[in-house]
Design brief:
The chain is of the alpha+beta class. It folds into 3 domains: 84-298, Vaccinia Virus protein VP39 (Rossmann fold), CATH 3.40.50.150; 310-411, no CATH class; 413-476, Nuclear Transport Factor 2, Chain: A (Roll), CATH 3.10.450. Helix content is 27%, strand content 23%. The chain has 14 helices and 22 strands. It has helices spanning 13-19, 38-41, 66-69, 82-98, 115-123, 137-150, 191-196, 199-217, 239-249, 313-322, 334-342, 372-378, 400-404, 420-427; strands spanning 25-28, 45-46, 53-55, 73-75, 105-108, 129-134, 155-159, 172-178, 220-230, 252-253, 265-266, 280-282, 292-298, 352-356, 360-365, 380-384, 386-392, 395-398, 415-418, 441-447, 450-457, 462-464. The strands form 4 sheets. Strands 5, 6, 7, 8, 9, 10, 11, 12, 13 and 16 form a 10-stranded mixed β-sheet that branches. It has a 4-stranded antiparallel β-sheet with strand order 2-3-1-4, with no helix packed on it. A hairpin with a 2-residue loop joins strand 17 (386-392) and strand 18. The longest helix is centred in the middle third of the chain and has 19 residues, at 199-217. It is globular and about 75 Å long. It starts with 12 loop residues before the first helix and ends in a 12-residue tail after the last strand. Residues 312-327 have low confidence and may be disordered.
Length: 476
């Protein structure tokens, strides 16, 4: 099938998929000093297109490494790290147009398990907000966990069909669509991808991709950017899908300037009658990563970034409509809210609005506050900002999200450093013994100088507060 494209660079692909091992790579968290992790120390080399990406000489047992659960790095195929570079390039383009580093509103429409979401967070300007959506409930929970571990609180996790975003109107500055696809690019490391493939699957995926893109184009601001990607090779789901967007919606292909053949990247397959699309392909055996197709499109019009409209007439109208909706808030004593605010780091305390939710307290970026009611009304919101605490009786219990969030004040709770074994015990929700003299109440455990999670010290024993659904199930 691929030979019929006449694209010579597919020539050795089948042999490469069959006979060579997949690369092992991780992306370090720049906001958690990822260069100090053991993974960086054992790195074989850096990923050419993203400086925080490193290749490892072999695949360790990641699950047993506490640094993974702290969000100090993310296990991600190197090809997919191009998302961070594209986010950075989009940011530079808009900054030049606006003559300022304007925070952007980014939607990751098919986001689970969270690799491209966290990559976008690394590439966007400070203060940007990322909305990450997943259709499947269980995968949405995994997405929530991985994004929480990365620590950036400027996020909203949603669940549901992409059609829900059309209710928001032209809202997002950037929409990323890592579309469900036939998975040809995963055949080297995923037996299921080989077993499920068929020409009928390609057609099924093409139809689904059309539906998703049609839904999301309505939610993109004039002048906004669409990042389209798949992990497959055929032109039906790739170049021909991009050409459809150009023909039917007037989408303008954008040259990112990131294509560098000496780094193993390839351009698009040339199709008779189709003008250049500025696409990038990562082909195993040529690039050090798995199969990936990615391109950047722009919606016609002049972009006014979403943040610049939030205080305007449109925003006030949305607020008025929201007042008619039932409130999700419960009533919490002012003293509780005051205590929660003290948990925030001094450097960001005034940048976050605290609100009482159905079961606790949420911290959400103040600059995006006018957008949150609109999303709560129209989207299935799983998590917004940092879910700081849950209410248990008369007590507020800090959450694991807060423990790993970049907004947590290091002085908010007494802390105890753990070794690797103690850290793994904690992550398995086993009992942890605290040093004599540790204050009673909530205690923050750390590992390697970074927060690990909370326990409640009762004096004669401790309650492990690590989420049951996140626990390591095989600590051997």
């Amino acid at each position: 099938m691929l030979a019929e494209t006449g694209y010579a660079r597919f020539g050795n692909l089948a042999e490469t998929l069959e006979t060579t091992p997949a690369e092992v790579s991780v992306r370090l968290n720049p906001r958690k000093k990822g260069e100090e992790t053991p993974m960086a120390a054992t790195a074989e080399s850096r990923v050419a297109w993203w400086k925080q990406g490193v290749y490892l000489p072999s695949r360790p047992r990641f699950t047993s490494d506490p640094a993974l659960h702290q969000g100090r790095y993310y296990v991600q195929d190197a090809s997919s790290m191009i998302t961070a570079a594209i986010a950075s390039r989009i940011s530079l383009t808009i900054a030049e147009e606006q003559q300022s580093d304007t925070p952007l509103l980014w939607l990751d429409a098919c986001a689970a398990p969270g690799g491209k979401t966290t990559a976008a967070l690394d590439g966007l300007p400070d203060g940007s907000l990322v909305v990450a959506n997943e259709y499947d409930y269980s995968r949405a929970e995994i997405l929530k966990e991985n994004v929480a571990k990365w620590g950036n609180p400027a996020t909203v996790i949603t669940r549901g069909d992409t059609a829900q975003f059309s209710k928001l109107g032209e809202t997002f500055d950037v929409i990323a669509v890592d579309a469900p696809c036939s998975g040809e690019g995963m055949m080297r490391k995923d037996l299921t991808a080989r077993e499920q493939w068929s020409p009928a699957l390609v057609e099924e995926c093409r139809a689904r991709q059309c539906e998703i893109l049609d839904n999301l184009w309505e939610a993109l601001r004039p002048g906004g950017f669409l990042v389209y990607s798949t992990c497959t090779f055929n032109t039906t789901e790739n170049e021909l899908m991009v050409d459809r967007m150009r023909r039917e919606y007037g989408a303008v292909p954008v040259d990112t300037g990131l294509l560098r053949e000496n780094d193993g990247m390839d351009g698009e397959v040339e199709i008779p009658g189709v003008e250049p699309l500025h696409c990038m392909r990562f082909i195993p055996g040529r690039a050090r990563g798995e199969g990936l197709f990615i391109t950047l499109l722009r919606k016609p019009g002049e972009l006014t970034p979403a943040l610049l409209t939030l205080g305007g007439k449109e925003s006030r109208q949305k607020k008025q409509k929201q007042k008619k909706q039932p409130s999700e808030k419960q009533s919490l004593p002012p003293e509780m809210m005051k205590n929660c605010r003290q948990w925030l780091d001094d450097s960001v305390r005034d940048e976050y609005e605290l609100s009482a939710t159905e079961d606790g307290v949420r911290a959400f970026p103040r600059r995006w506050g006018a957008l949150l009611p609109l999303m709560l009304r129209n989207l299935q919101v799983v998590s917004a900002g940092t879910e700081m605490a849950v209410v248990k009786g008369k007590d507020l219990i800090p959450t694991q999200q807060l423990a790993l969030s970049l907004i947590l004040s290091p002085a908010a709770f007494p802390s105890v450093a753990t070794g690797e074994k103690e850290a793994r015990d904690y992550l398995s929700r086993e009992s942890v013994t605290l040093p004599e003299g540790t204050p009673r109440g909530i205690v923050l455990l750390t590992f390697g100088g970074f927060p690990l999670g909370f326990v409640k010290n009762l004096g004669n024993r401790t309650n492990n507060l690590y989420p049951k659904e996140w626990r390591i199930r095989n600590n051997s």
